Amino acid sequence: MSKTDTAGESTTGPQVPEQGAPDVPEQEAREQGDSGDLGKAGEQLSTAPQERAVPGSFGGPRTPGAAGAIAWTFRETFGWVRWFWRQLTSMRIALILLFLLSLGAIPGSLIPQSNANELKVRTWKEAHEFWAPVFDKLQLFDVYSSVWFSAIYILLFVSLIGCIVPRTWQFAGQLRSRPPGAPKRLTRLPAHTTWRTDADPEAVREAALTLLKKRRFRAHIAGDAVAAEKGYLREVGNLIFHVSLIVMLVAFAVGQLFKSEGGKLITEGRGFSNTLTQYDDFRSGTLFDVDELVPFSFTLDRFTGTYEPKGPQRGTPRTFEAAVTYTEGVGDEEHKRIIRVNEPLEIDGAKVYLLSHGYAPVVTVRDGKGKQVYRGAVPLLPVDGNVTSTGVIKVRDGYRDAKGKKEQLGFPAFFVPTYAGKGKGQMFSQFPALVFPALNLGAYHGDLGGNGGAPQNVYQLDTNRMTPFKNAQGDVFKQTLLPGETMKLPNGAGSVTFEKEIKEWASFQVSQQPGNGLALAGAVAAIAGLVGSLFIQRRRVWVRAVRDDSGTGLTVIEMAGLGRTESAKLPEELAELAALLHTQAPTAAGPAGPGPAAPDAGSRPAEAESEPEAEPQAEAKPAEGADK
């Protein structure tokens, strides 16, 4: 199946099918002795490639001898290569490749990807020990850089280019050429009409030429007829659509190769500078250079979040915004800006998106002598929609136990912004706003680890080398604190104070996607091209004016049209043109009738054109695939 117009219409009608059999009107014309006329008039209404040969017939007759075998082998090999190329550049294969590309993207969205979140990939592998090696071999953790996904992508790219280049070249040739001359028997065409007039044939042809040009047809006089064509923008739209697909594929490739994307959690009052070391996590394309990071910095002044207080939507965010102060480059003046969801801060091609938020309780830790060894806002990660949060407070330096030995402290933290109260169920938040905040802490001492350089999750506590403080019952020492309260560690080991100040934090994503503008342009052009290929009809019109052979001295006018695809508009347009031409070349007085009838799919035979009466002829039955 050859690649056809975007709308999916097959190249039938006046064009030759793939198997080489002539279509109905052309075959009919040959049977009547008009060989080649309709075929020439109906050809090149589309630039879709045609394939007449079938597999197994490429070599043709095989002549005896070694030379004949070599020649046959060469022809057969070349034929198979050409046949495979035709299949690759066909619409059927292009659609299959597009379908496979969409299927290939599904595991990329459902399975954690290494280039996006390596931690999630490790967690997934630990939870699915059986499937992990299978997915590794299938490259399902790196879908978009896998061999099979790249193969589909490249084949689709080649398929589109292999279709566009020859069709563009052929279409350019059609634009340089004139519409083909009229067939010998216009009454064989799907839509036609005829009448007789007293006007001279030359005058009728000049009037028809002027009329068609005014209706924006490309027209010229060819022999005893005027040949005209219209609707070239249909093929232009078709080519634009295919070119736009290539543009979007290129944009996707550029975006994957040169993109950068990083995340950063920032507490109120703290800042961020767009350098690699400042990111919490960072990923980039293969060809991205760190020097291409846009130089800017910003400070989170405050985060504002408000929520629906009651009703079925209780707890739904109503306000979700971050007020920042930013500078572009070094030494630039400061600017104020509010960042909201889907309203990023844009700086020289880089976009700063607001992703999420949470709370950072301010905690003070003192040793047994009352010396402050730690004070700061500790960001905790939400675990539900009401911002119930967990995390760890880690004290790495400055603490000594009662014997003066250096130790490190770790406090698993569980925070709720709206506490239901002791004895009122589990400690989960009832509302996302700070209505009744509470902080539950456990206590450990020992070695936090990480001194060997191995990365650690700052929101988790490794207790392998830690010893829990114990309560009177021998369990891990824990206590729930309200703002301003202090937890005393056992045996005078120190204290932890939950300060009344509770800060908020916001998580940002800084993204540089150089292919986004190109992809948008390609998408807009693809839609425009698709609209053109769907709604513009390619059609040809012929007007023949010759003297009547019966000796009456009248001029016989024949008008006919042929379209690229089936359409009810062609007979209507032909009827309108015939009516306009009839005003300048009216029907001769006598039994001929009042004028041309509107062309439609009639039942009278084409031989009626030789009958003496001047009534307009009814049309022949439309050929398959031609406009009606």
Structure overview:
This protein has 628 residues and is an alpha+beta fold. The protein has 11 helices and 23 strands. Strands 4, 6, 10, 11, 12, 20 and 21 form a 7-stranded antiparallel sheet that branches. Helix 4 runs antiparallel to helix 7. The N terminus and C terminus are likely disordered.
Report the portion of residues in β strands. Answer: 25-35%
The profile of the biggest β sheet is: 7 strands, antiparallel
Helix count, DSSP H or I runs of 4 or more residues:
11
- The helix fraction, in percent, is 25-40%
Provide the structure class. alpha+beta
Number of strands: 23
pLDDT average, as an integer? Answer: 82
Radius of gyration: 39 Å
Detail the poorly predicted runs. Answer: 1-36, 601-628
Q: How far apart are the termini?
A: 24 Å
Broad shape: elongated
Give the topology.
Elements: H1 24-31, H2 37-42, H3 65-88, H4 91-110, H5 118-127, H6 131-137, H7 147-176, E1 191-197, H8 201-214, E2 218-222, E3 225-230, H9 233-258, E4 260-267, E5 271-273, E6 281-284, E7 296-307, E8 317-328, E9 335-340, E10 345-347, E11 350-366, E12 372-377, E13 381-382, E14 389-395, E15 408-416, E16 438-442, E17 444-446, E18 466-468, E19 478-481, E20 486-488, E21 495-512, H10 516-535, E22 539-547, E23 555-563, H11 569-584
Antiparallel strand pairs: 1-23, 2-3, 3-22, 4-6, 4-21, 5-7, 7-8, 8-9, 10-11, 11-12, 11-21, 13-14, 14-15, 15-16, 15-17, 16-19, 17-18, 20-21, 22-23
Helix pairs in contact: 4-7, 7-9, 8-11, 9-10
Keywords:
628 residues; seven-stranded antiparallel β-sheet; elongated; disordered N terminus
